[in-house]
Specification:
Helix content is 65%, strand content 0%. By secondary structure, the chain is mainly alpha-helical. Helix 3 packs antiparallel against helix 4 and helix 3 packs across helix 5.
Length: 105
C-alpha cells in the first residue's frame, strides 16, 4: 500500500483510505486505466474515417494509419466472442450518437 501511495502524485489521494492494496489498485485502474477508454476509441475511429493521404508519401500515410490501428487494437483487442464484439459496436454507436448531438445539449 505504501508503494502505491508513494507512486501517486500528492494531489491524487482518492485511494488513501481504502483498506487493502487490492482495493487501491482496483480503484486506480478504474480511474486512470485505458482498458475501455471509449472516448479515445471513438477519436481513433473518427480520425481513421477522415484520414487522407493528401501531400504525404505512401509510407508516411501508411505509418499514420498503422499507428492508429495499433492504438485501437490496444484499446479493443481482436475478439472472437460475439458478446464482446457486440459491446464494441454498441459503445461506438452511442459515442457516434452523442458526438453528433447539438452542442447546446
Amino acid at each position: 500500500m505504501t508503494w502505491h501511495l508513494n507512486s501517486l502524485e500528492e494531489k491524487i489521494n482518492s485511494v488513501m483510505f481504502l483498506p487493502t492494496a487490492k482495493d487501491m489498485w482496483d480503484t486506480s485502474k478504474v480511474m486512470y486505466g485505458n482498458e475501455k477508454n471509449l472516448s479515445r476509441v471513438f477519436e481513433i475511429y473518427e480520425r481513421l474515417f477522415e484520414l487522407k493521404q493528401e501531400d504525404r508519401s505512401v509510407p508516411e500515410f501508411y505509418c499514420e494509419v498503422k499507428g492508429l490501428i495499433d492504438e485501437l487494437e490496444m484499446h479493443q483487442a481482436s475478439v472472437t466472442d460475439a458478446t464482446t464484439l457486440r459491446g464494441y459496436r454498441q459503445d461506438f454507436a452511442v459515442s457516434k450518437f452523442l458526438s453528433g448531438l447539438s452542442p447546446t445539449l
